[in-house]
Amino acid sequence: MSQATQPETKGIQLSETALKHLVMLREQQGSDLCLRVGVRNGGCSGMSYMMDFEDPSNIRPDDEVYDYDGFKIICDPKSLLYLYGLMLDYSNALIGGGFQFTNPNASQTCGCGKSFGV
């Protein structure tokens, strides 16, 4: 019996729309940057999402690195405890548009969608 190969499951999922938008934003920065995703204390629900472009030389040995066709997403291990399974999407909608976080670990989210509680 042969087993079908399962696609690699990444701790942080990225929609095709979000990937295209991130690649466009990275090109505007003019260099080969990666995206750091994490959490910090604060926000309406207790913790807020953070993400920013970062030089690949800043990747630490304990960071998780996810590669999407050459675009790298990095996350520190402490943040990954709260973000594992996160789906990052992007919408062009005039109201409610922008990056959207769907986090299976969140027990509550705020109205803006940028913070959560566990």
From TrEMBL:
A Pfam family it matches: Fe-S_biosyn
Domain Core: 12-114
Full protein name: Iron-sulfur cluster assembly accessory protein
Gene3D superfamilies reported for this sequence: HesB-like domain
